[in-house]
Specification:
489 residues, alpha+beta, Cytochrome C Oxidase, Chain J, Catalase HpII,  Chain A, domain 1, 3 domains, 13 helices, 28% helix, globular
Length: 489
Protein backbone atom coordinates (compact mmCIF):
# COMPACT_ATOMS: atom_id res chain seq x y z
CA UNK A 1 0.00 0.00 0.00
CA UNK A 2 1.44 3.35 -1.04
CA UNK A 3 1.88 6.08 1.57
CA UNK A 4 1.74 9.85 1.20
CA UNK A 5 4.91 11.84 1.83
CA UNK A 6 4.21 14.17 4.78
CA UNK A 7 5.88 16.55 7.19
CA UNK A 8 6.51 15.53 10.77
CA UNK A 9 3.12 17.03 11.62
CA UNK A 10 1.41 14.83 9.00
CA UNK A 11 0.87 17.46 6.28
CA UNK A 12 1.33 15.99 2.77
CA UNK A 13 3.69 17.85 0.43
CA UNK A 14 5.03 17.49 -3.09
CA UNK A 15 8.29 19.38 -3.58
CA UNK A 16 10.86 17.24 -1.73
CA UNK A 17 13.79 17.80 -4.11
CA UNK A 18 13.52 21.39 -5.39
CA UNK A 19 13.60 24.54 -3.23
CA UNK A 20 11.34 27.50 -4.09
CA UNK A 21 13.38 30.25 -5.72
CA UNK A 22 12.97 33.56 -7.55
CA UNK A 23 13.26 32.19 -11.05
CA UNK A 24 15.08 29.04 -12.05
CA UNK A 25 18.47 30.52 -11.14
CA UNK A 26 17.45 33.07 -8.52
CA UNK A 27 17.84 33.22 -4.74
CA UNK A 28 15.84 30.95 -2.50
CA UNK A 29 12.72 31.98 -0.62
CA UNK A 30 12.39 31.86 3.14
CA UNK A 31 8.85 30.68 2.53
CA UNK A 32 9.88 27.11 1.66
CA UNK A 33 9.15 25.49 5.00
CA UNK A 34 10.10 22.01 3.77
CA UNK A 35 13.71 23.17 3.21
CA UNK A 36 13.88 24.43 6.80
CA UNK A 37 12.26 21.30 8.23
CA UNK A 38 14.65 18.98 6.38
CA UNK A 39 17.80 20.96 7.18
CA UNK A 40 16.87 21.72 10.79
CA UNK A 41 16.15 18.05 11.46
CA UNK A 42 19.36 17.01 9.70
CA UNK A 43 21.37 19.42 11.86
CA UNK A 44 19.98 17.71 14.95
CA UNK A 45 20.20 14.08 13.88
CA UNK A 46 23.25 13.32 15.99
CA UNK A 47 22.62 12.97 19.68
CA UNK A 48 25.62 13.11 22.02
CA UNK A 49 27.52 9.86 21.68
CA UNK A 50 28.20 7.82 24.77
CA UNK A 51 31.25 9.09 26.63
CA UNK A 52 32.37 5.47 26.85
CA UNK A 53 31.09 2.48 24.87
CA UNK A 54 30.32 4.87 22.00
CA UNK A 55 30.47 2.27 19.22
CA UNK A 56 28.40 -0.84 19.62
CA UNK A 57 26.51 -3.70 18.03
CA UNK A 58 23.01 -4.63 19.16
CA UNK A 59 20.64 -7.55 18.67
CA UNK A 60 17.43 -8.88 20.18
CA UNK A 61 16.87 -12.41 21.38
CA UNK A 62 15.32 -14.67 23.97
CA UNK A 63 16.52 -15.68 27.41
CA UNK A 64 15.40 -19.06 28.75
CA UNK A 65 15.75 -20.37 32.30
CA UNK A 66 17.27 -23.87 32.19
CA UNK A 67 18.07 -24.55 35.85
CA UNK A 68 16.31 -23.91 39.14
CA UNK A 69 17.95 -21.19 41.28
CA UNK A 70 14.82 -20.23 43.26
CA UNK A 71 16.71 -21.20 46.42
CA UNK A 72 18.79 -18.05 45.86
CA UNK A 73 16.34 -15.55 44.34
CA UNK A 74 12.64 -14.73 44.43
CA UNK A 75 12.79 -13.02 41.03
CA UNK A 76 9.76 -14.19 39.02
CA UNK A 77 11.95 -14.73 35.98
CA UNK A 78 13.78 -17.51 37.81
CA UNK A 79 10.74 -18.98 39.56
CA UNK A 80 10.37 -21.83 37.08
CA UNK A 81 12.55 -23.72 34.62
CA UNK A 82 11.39 -22.88 31.13
CA UNK A 83 10.50 -19.24 31.83
CA UNK A 84 11.49 -16.92 29.00
CA UNK A 85 11.75 -13.22 28.33
CA UNK A 86 12.77 -10.97 25.46
CA UNK A 87 16.31 -9.62 25.68
CA UNK A 88 18.41 -6.89 24.06
CA UNK A 89 22.19 -7.29 23.93
CA UNK A 90 24.66 -4.55 23.09
CA UNK A 91 28.37 -5.20 22.62
CA UNK A 92 30.79 -2.30 22.41
CA UNK A 93 34.29 -0.92 22.55
CA UNK A 94 35.00 0.97 25.77
CA UNK A 95 37.43 3.77 24.91
CA UNK A 96 36.94 4.46 21.22
CA UNK A 97 34.67 6.95 19.53
CA UNK A 98 31.65 6.00 17.45
CA UNK A 99 33.78 5.74 14.32
CA UNK A 100 36.58 3.67 15.84
CA UNK A 101 37.56 0.26 14.52
CA UNK A 102 35.96 -2.86 15.98
CA UNK A 103 39.35 -4.53 16.40
CA UNK A 104 41.02 -1.89 18.59
CA UNK A 105 42.78 -3.29 21.67
CA UNK A 106 40.14 -2.48 24.23
CA UNK A 107 37.82 -4.23 26.68
CA UNK A 108 34.41 -4.96 25.18
CA UNK A 109 31.19 -3.88 26.79
CA UNK A 110 28.65 -6.67 27.33
CA UNK A 111 25.26 -5.13 28.20
CA UNK A 112 21.99 -7.03 28.50
CA UNK A 113 18.44 -5.72 28.97
CA UNK A 114 15.94 -8.36 30.14
CA UNK A 115 12.31 -7.32 29.56
CA UNK A 116 10.72 -9.10 32.54
CA UNK A 117 7.27 -8.87 34.12
CA UNK A 118 8.98 -7.37 37.19
CA UNK A 119 10.39 -4.57 35.04
CA UNK A 120 13.46 -4.15 32.89
CA UNK A 121 16.63 -5.67 34.35
CA UNK A 122 19.92 -4.29 33.00
CA UNK A 123 23.05 -6.32 33.53
CA UNK A 124 25.87 -4.11 32.29
CA UNK A 125 29.36 -5.58 32.28
CA UNK A 126 32.32 -6.34 30.07
CA UNK A 127 34.01 -9.28 28.40
CA UNK A 128 36.40 -9.41 31.36
CA UNK A 129 35.65 -10.48 34.96
CA UNK A 130 37.69 -7.61 36.45
CA UNK A 131 38.26 -3.89 35.81
CA UNK A 132 41.11 -1.37 36.00
CA UNK A 133 39.93 0.56 39.06
CA UNK A 134 37.89 -0.14 42.16
CA UNK A 135 36.74 3.34 43.28
CA UNK A 136 34.31 5.40 41.13
CA UNK A 137 36.11 8.65 41.97
CA UNK A 138 38.94 7.45 39.73
CA UNK A 139 36.75 6.63 36.74
CA UNK A 140 36.88 9.96 34.89
CA UNK A 141 40.67 10.15 35.31
CA UNK A 142 41.06 6.63 33.95
CA UNK A 143 38.81 7.23 30.94
CA UNK A 144 40.64 10.47 30.11
CA UNK A 145 43.83 8.42 29.67
CA UNK A 146 42.03 6.09 27.24
CA UNK A 147 40.75 8.98 25.12
CA UNK A 148 42.83 11.64 23.37
CA UNK A 149 45.72 13.83 24.51
CA UNK A 150 44.34 17.36 25.07
CA UNK A 151 47.28 18.86 23.16
CA UNK A 152 47.84 16.51 20.22
CA UNK A 153 44.32 14.99 20.02
CA UNK A 154 46.04 11.63 19.58
CA UNK A 155 45.79 8.45 21.62
CA UNK A 156 48.65 8.47 24.11
CA UNK A 157 50.46 5.40 25.46
CA UNK A 158 52.28 7.82 27.78
CA UNK A 159 49.05 8.92 29.48
CA UNK A 160 47.80 5.36 29.66
CA UNK A 161 50.89 3.76 31.18
CA UNK A 162 51.53 6.75 33.45
CA UNK A 163 48.09 6.26 35.04
CA UNK A 164 48.50 2.49 35.28
CA UNK A 165 51.95 2.79 36.83
CA UNK A 166 50.41 4.87 39.64
CA UNK A 167 47.55 2.39 40.09
CA UNK A 168 48.81 -1.18 40.55
CA UNK A 169 45.21 -2.38 41.07
CA UNK A 170 44.96 -2.11 37.26
CA UNK A 171 47.51 -4.89 36.75
CA UNK A 172 45.04 -7.78 36.57
CA UNK A 173 42.99 -6.11 33.85
CA UNK A 174 46.12 -4.89 32.03
CA UNK A 175 47.25 -8.50 31.52
CA UNK A 176 43.89 -9.45 30.05
CA UNK A 177 43.85 -6.38 27.80
CA UNK A 178 47.39 -6.98 26.57
CA UNK A 179 46.73 -10.65 25.87
CA UNK A 180 44.93 -11.73 22.72
CA UNK A 181 41.70 -11.48 24.72
CA UNK A 182 42.09 -7.73 24.23
CA UNK A 183 41.35 -8.19 20.53
CA UNK A 184 38.38 -10.59 20.18
CA UNK A 185 37.67 -11.92 16.69
CA UNK A 186 34.13 -10.64 17.03
CA UNK A 187 31.43 -10.19 19.64
CA UNK A 188 30.10 -13.72 19.09
CA UNK A 189 33.34 -15.34 20.20
CA UNK A 190 33.84 -13.89 23.66
CA UNK A 191 32.49 -14.49 27.15
CA UNK A 192 30.60 -11.83 29.08
CA UNK A 193 30.64 -10.96 32.78
CA UNK A 194 28.55 -8.88 35.13
CA UNK A 195 32.04 -8.14 36.55
CA UNK A 196 30.69 -6.67 39.81
CA UNK A 197 29.42 -8.61 42.78
CA UNK A 198 25.63 -8.50 43.00
CA UNK A 199 23.23 -9.94 45.55
CA UNK A 200 20.28 -12.30 45.37
CA UNK A 201 17.41 -12.47 47.84
CA UNK A 202 15.12 -15.48 48.12
CA UNK A 203 11.53 -15.78 49.33
CA UNK A 204 12.76 -16.05 52.93
CA UNK A 205 14.75 -12.82 52.54
CA UNK A 206 18.00 -14.79 52.76
CA UNK A 207 20.81 -13.04 50.91
CA UNK A 208 23.74 -14.43 48.95
CA UNK A 209 26.37 -12.68 46.88
CA UNK A 210 26.65 -13.59 43.19
CA UNK A 211 28.73 -12.99 40.11
CA UNK A 212 27.24 -13.42 36.62
CA UNK A 213 29.05 -15.17 33.77
CA UNK A 214 27.95 -15.57 30.16
CA UNK A 215 29.76 -18.37 28.38
CA UNK A 216 29.82 -18.16 24.61
CA UNK A 217 28.62 -21.32 22.88
CA UNK A 218 30.58 -20.34 19.75
CA UNK A 219 33.91 -20.84 21.53
CA UNK A 220 36.62 -18.27 22.21
CA UNK A 221 38.31 -16.82 19.14
CA UNK A 222 40.75 -13.91 19.18
CA UNK A 223 42.88 -11.95 16.76
CA UNK A 224 46.59 -11.61 17.43
CA UNK A 225 47.78 -8.02 17.66
CA UNK A 226 49.05 -8.17 14.07
CA UNK A 227 45.79 -9.63 12.75
CA UNK A 228 43.73 -7.03 14.61
CA UNK A 229 45.78 -4.18 13.15
CA UNK A 230 45.37 -5.62 9.66
CA UNK A 231 41.60 -5.95 10.06
CA UNK A 232 41.38 -2.29 11.14
CA UNK A 233 42.39 -1.35 7.60
CA UNK A 234 40.39 -4.05 5.85
CA UNK A 235 37.05 -3.67 7.66
CA UNK A 236 36.76 -1.36 10.68
CA UNK A 237 33.19 -2.65 11.19
CA UNK A 238 34.18 -6.31 11.27
CA UNK A 239 32.32 -7.25 14.47
CA UNK A 240 29.15 -5.42 13.44
CA UNK A 241 29.15 -7.16 10.06
CA UNK A 242 29.91 -10.53 11.64
CA UNK A 243 26.89 -10.27 13.96
CA UNK A 244 24.49 -9.07 11.25
CA UNK A 245 25.51 -11.75 8.78
CA UNK A 246 25.42 -14.54 11.37
CA UNK A 247 21.85 -13.71 12.40
CA UNK A 248 20.70 -13.15 8.82
CA UNK A 249 22.12 -16.60 7.98
CA UNK A 250 20.23 -18.03 10.98
CA UNK A 251 23.49 -18.90 12.75
CA UNK A 252 22.02 -17.54 15.97
CA UNK A 253 24.74 -16.93 18.57
CA UNK A 254 24.13 -18.29 22.06
CA UNK A 255 25.54 -17.76 25.53
CA UNK A 256 24.96 -19.75 28.69
CA UNK A 257 24.27 -17.80 31.88
CA UNK A 258 26.06 -19.09 34.97
CA UNK A 259 26.50 -17.70 38.45
CA UNK A 260 28.96 -18.01 41.31
CA UNK A 261 27.39 -17.92 44.77
CA UNK A 262 29.01 -16.79 48.03
CA UNK A 263 27.41 -16.71 51.47
CA UNK A 264 27.86 -13.89 53.97
CA UNK A 265 30.16 -16.03 56.06
CA UNK A 266 32.25 -17.02 53.06
CA UNK A 267 32.52 -13.33 52.18
CA UNK A 268 33.84 -12.57 55.66
CA UNK A 269 36.37 -15.43 55.41
CA UNK A 270 37.46 -14.66 51.83
CA UNK A 271 41.20 -13.83 51.58
CA UNK A 272 40.45 -10.79 49.41
CA UNK A 273 37.70 -8.22 49.53
CA UNK A 274 34.94 -10.12 47.64
CA UNK A 275 33.46 -6.80 46.49
CA UNK A 276 36.69 -5.62 44.85
CA UNK A 277 36.08 -5.58 41.08
CA UNK A 278 39.82 -5.92 40.39
CA UNK A 279 39.68 -9.47 41.84
CA UNK A 280 37.99 -12.72 40.79
CA UNK A 281 36.42 -15.50 42.84
CA UNK A 282 38.36 -18.73 42.15
CA UNK A 283 36.17 -21.24 40.32
CA UNK A 284 37.57 -24.06 42.43
CA UNK A 285 36.12 -22.49 45.56
CA UNK A 286 33.00 -21.02 43.98
CA UNK A 287 32.04 -23.18 40.99
CA UNK A 288 29.93 -21.92 38.11
CA UNK A 289 26.26 -22.91 38.46
CA UNK A 290 24.13 -23.17 35.31
CA UNK A 291 21.12 -20.82 35.20
CA UNK A 292 19.93 -20.35 31.62
CA UNK A 293 20.89 -19.38 28.11
CA UNK A 294 20.10 -16.65 25.65
CA UNK A 295 20.00 -16.68 21.88
CA UNK A 296 20.27 -13.61 19.64
CA UNK A 297 17.99 -14.03 16.65
CA UNK A 298 16.83 -10.59 15.52
CA UNK A 299 18.75 -7.63 14.11
CA UNK A 300 17.16 -4.30 15.09
CA UNK A 301 15.00 -2.84 12.34
CA UNK A 302 16.58 0.56 12.85
CA UNK A 303 20.02 0.95 14.42
CA UNK A 304 19.50 4.46 15.78
CA UNK A 305 16.09 3.77 17.31
CA UNK A 306 16.94 0.46 18.94
CA UNK A 307 20.71 0.48 19.53
CA UNK A 308 21.92 4.08 19.63
CA UNK A 309 18.96 5.04 21.83
CA UNK A 310 19.19 1.93 23.98
CA UNK A 311 19.91 2.98 27.56
CA UNK A 312 21.46 0.54 30.02
CA UNK A 313 22.03 1.17 33.73
CA UNK A 314 23.27 -1.18 36.47
CA UNK A 315 20.81 0.63 38.75
CA UNK A 316 17.97 -1.24 37.06
CA UNK A 317 17.63 -4.48 39.03
CA UNK A 318 14.46 -6.49 39.63
CA UNK A 319 12.96 -7.82 42.85
CA UNK A 320 15.14 -10.70 44.03
CA UNK A 321 18.36 -9.25 42.60
CA UNK A 322 20.23 -6.43 44.28
CA UNK A 323 23.45 -4.52 44.70
CA UNK A 324 26.53 -5.13 46.84
CA UNK A 325 29.07 -2.91 48.64
CA UNK A 326 31.21 -3.01 45.48
CA UNK A 327 32.33 0.64 45.40
CA UNK A 328 32.59 0.90 41.63
CA UNK A 329 29.11 -0.59 41.25
CA UNK A 330 27.79 1.93 43.77
CA UNK A 331 29.22 4.73 41.62
CA UNK A 332 27.70 3.30 38.44
CA UNK A 333 24.27 3.15 40.09
CA UNK A 334 24.39 6.96 40.07
CA UNK A 335 26.36 7.75 36.94
CA UNK A 336 24.71 5.54 34.31
CA UNK A 337 21.12 6.81 34.62
CA UNK A 338 22.52 10.34 34.86
CA UNK A 339 24.45 9.84 31.61
CA UNK A 340 21.29 8.58 29.87
CA UNK A 341 19.28 11.58 31.06
CA UNK A 342 21.93 13.87 29.57
CA UNK A 343 22.24 11.92 26.33
CA UNK A 344 18.58 11.05 25.67
CA UNK A 345 16.57 13.29 27.99
CA UNK A 346 14.87 12.85 31.35
CA UNK A 347 12.13 10.71 29.79
CA UNK A 348 14.53 8.27 28.11
CA UNK A 349 12.65 5.28 29.53
CA UNK A 350 9.65 6.14 27.33
CA UNK A 351 11.69 5.47 24.19
CA UNK A 352 10.29 2.17 22.86
CA UNK A 353 13.53 0.20 23.15
CA UNK A 354 13.84 1.24 26.81
CA UNK A 355 10.16 1.11 27.72
CA UNK A 356 9.02 -1.66 30.02
CA UNK A 357 6.53 -3.77 28.04
CA UNK A 358 4.46 -4.27 31.18
CA UNK A 359 2.58 -1.80 33.38
CA UNK A 360 4.45 1.17 34.86
CA UNK A 361 2.91 3.46 37.48
CA UNK A 362 4.55 6.39 39.22
CA UNK A 363 4.27 10.11 39.84
CA UNK A 364 6.95 11.41 37.49
CA UNK A 365 5.59 14.11 35.18
CA UNK A 366 6.66 16.66 32.57
CA UNK A 367 10.16 17.14 31.15
CA UNK A 368 11.44 17.20 27.59
CA UNK A 369 9.88 14.70 25.18
CA UNK A 370 7.14 13.43 27.47
CA UNK A 371 5.22 11.30 24.96
CA UNK A 372 3.02 8.98 27.02
CA UNK A 373 0.16 11.34 27.87
CA UNK A 374 1.98 12.67 30.96
CA UNK A 375 -0.34 10.84 33.33
CA UNK A 376 -3.40 12.52 31.81
CA UNK A 377 -5.54 13.91 34.67
CA UNK A 378 -4.29 11.47 37.29
CA UNK A 379 -2.73 12.65 40.53
CA UNK A 380 0.94 13.61 40.47
CA UNK A 381 1.64 13.21 44.18
CA UNK A 382 1.82 10.42 46.72
CA UNK A 383 0.05 9.48 48.88
CA UNK A 384 -3.38 10.59 47.66
CA UNK A 385 -7.02 9.69 48.17
CA UNK A 386 -7.95 9.02 44.55
CA UNK A 387 -5.83 6.58 42.58
CA UNK A 388 -5.35 2.88 43.33
CA UNK A 389 -1.57 2.71 43.14
CA UNK A 390 -0.18 0.74 46.09
CA UNK A 391 3.30 -0.20 47.19
CA UNK A 392 4.48 -3.80 46.75
CA UNK A 393 5.30 -5.19 50.18
CA UNK A 394 7.19 -8.12 48.64
CA UNK A 395 9.70 -5.76 47.04
CA UNK A 396 10.82 -4.40 50.40
CA UNK A 397 14.49 -5.17 50.97
CA UNK A 398 15.94 -6.14 54.34
CA UNK A 399 18.41 -3.83 56.06
CA UNK A 400 21.99 -4.08 54.86
CA UNK A 401 24.47 -5.32 57.46
CA UNK A 402 27.58 -3.17 57.54
CA UNK A 403 30.97 -4.12 58.94
CA UNK A 404 31.60 -0.62 60.26
CA UNK A 405 29.47 2.29 61.39
CA UNK A 406 32.29 4.76 60.80
CA UNK A 407 31.87 7.08 57.82
CA UNK A 408 35.24 8.16 56.47
CA UNK A 409 37.46 8.25 53.36
CA UNK A 410 39.17 4.88 53.45
CA UNK A 411 42.23 4.05 51.38
CA UNK A 412 41.00 1.78 48.60
CA UNK A 413 44.39 0.01 48.78
CA UNK A 414 44.69 -0.14 52.55
CA UNK A 415 45.78 -3.23 54.52
CA UNK A 416 43.97 -6.31 53.24
CA UNK A 417 43.13 -4.63 49.93
CA UNK A 418 46.64 -3.98 48.62
CA UNK A 419 47.65 -7.28 47.01
CA UNK A 420 47.43 -6.49 43.31
CA UNK A 421 49.95 -9.10 42.22
CA UNK A 422 48.84 -12.59 43.34
CA UNK A 423 45.81 -12.98 41.07
CA UNK A 424 47.51 -11.30 38.13
CA UNK A 425 50.47 -13.65 38.60
CA UNK A 426 48.19 -16.69 38.67
CA UNK A 427 46.54 -15.52 35.47
CA UNK A 428 49.89 -15.15 33.71
CA UNK A 429 51.77 -18.18 35.01
CA UNK A 430 49.02 -20.78 35.50
CA UNK A 431 46.07 -19.82 33.26
CA UNK A 432 47.74 -18.51 30.11
CA UNK A 433 49.41 -20.92 27.71
CA UNK A 434 53.03 -20.43 26.66
CA UNK A 435 51.91 -18.88 23.38
CA UNK A 436 49.46 -16.57 25.18
CA UNK A 437 52.22 -15.44 27.55
CA UNK A 438 54.50 -14.75 24.59
CA UNK A 439 51.85 -12.68 22.78
CA UNK A 440 50.94 -10.78 25.95
CA UNK A 441 54.55 -9.78 26.57
CA UNK A 442 54.93 -8.71 22.94
CA UNK A 443 51.77 -6.60 23.11
CA UNK A 444 52.89 -4.94 26.35
CA UNK A 445 56.31 -4.15 24.89
CA UNK A 446 54.69 -2.77 21.74
CA UNK A 447 52.34 -0.57 23.76
CA UNK A 448 54.91 0.68 26.27
CA UNK A 449 57.29 1.51 23.43
CA UNK A 450 54.90 4.35 22.61
CA UNK A 451 55.66 6.12 25.91
CA UNK A 452 57.42 9.42 25.16
CA UNK A 453 58.58 12.59 26.89
CA UNK A 454 60.89 13.55 29.71
CA UNK A 455 59.08 11.26 32.16
CA UNK A 456 59.44 8.23 29.88
CA UNK A 457 62.01 6.32 31.96
CA UNK A 458 60.24 7.15 35.22
CA UNK A 459 56.91 5.81 33.94
CA UNK A 460 58.46 2.68 32.43
CA UNK A 461 60.45 1.86 35.57
CA UNK A 462 57.46 2.39 37.83
CA UNK A 463 55.35 0.03 35.71
CA UNK A 464 58.17 -2.52 35.42
CA UNK A 465 58.28 -2.69 39.21
CA UNK A 466 54.63 -3.85 39.18
CA UNK A 467 55.34 -6.54 36.60
CA UNK A 468 58.42 -7.61 38.54
CA UNK A 469 56.42 -7.95 41.77
CA UNK A 470 53.82 -9.99 39.92
CA UNK A 471 56.35 -12.34 38.36
CA UNK A 472 60.10 -11.89 37.99
CA UNK A 473 60.19 -13.57 34.61
CA UNK A 474 57.60 -11.31 32.97
CA UNK A 475 59.29 -8.25 34.44
CA UNK A 476 62.64 -9.33 32.99
CA UNK A 477 61.16 -10.21 29.59
CA UNK A 478 59.35 -6.89 29.25
CA UNK A 479 62.44 -4.98 30.36
CA UNK A 480 64.50 -6.89 27.79
CA UNK A 481 61.95 -6.11 25.08
CA UNK A 482 62.19 -2.42 25.97
CA UNK A 483 65.99 -2.56 26.01
CA UNK A 484 66.24 -1.90 29.74
CA UNK A 485 68.61 -3.98 31.89
CA UNK A 486 66.88 -5.29 35.03
CA UNK A 487 68.25 -7.39 37.87
CA UNK A 488 65.86 -10.31 38.55
CA UNK A 489 67.83 -11.95 41.37
Amino acid sequence: MKKLLTTGSGIPYFENENTMSVGARGPLLLEDFILHEKMAHFNRERIPERVVHAKGTGAFGTFTVTNDISQYTKAKLFSKVGNTCKLLARFSQVGGEKGSADTERDPRGFALKFYTEDGNWDLVGNNTPVFFIKDPKKFSDFIHTQKRDPKTNLKSPTMMWDFWSYNPESLHQILILMSDRGTPYSHRFMHGFGSHTFSMLNAKNEKVWVKFHFITQQGIKNFTGKEANEMRGINPDHSQQDMVEAIENKEFPKWEMKIQVMTNQEAKDFPFNPFDVTKVWPHGDFPLLAVGEFELNEIPKNYFAEVEQAAFAPAHVINGIGYSPDKLLQGRILSYPDAQRYRLGVNYEQIPVNKCPYSTNNYERDGYMRVDGNGQSSENYFPNSFDEIIVDETSKKPAMELDSTEANWFDRNGPGDNDHYTQAGILFTKVMSENERKNTIANIVDSMSGIIGEKKNEIINRQLCHFYRMDKAIGADIAKGLGIPMDVK
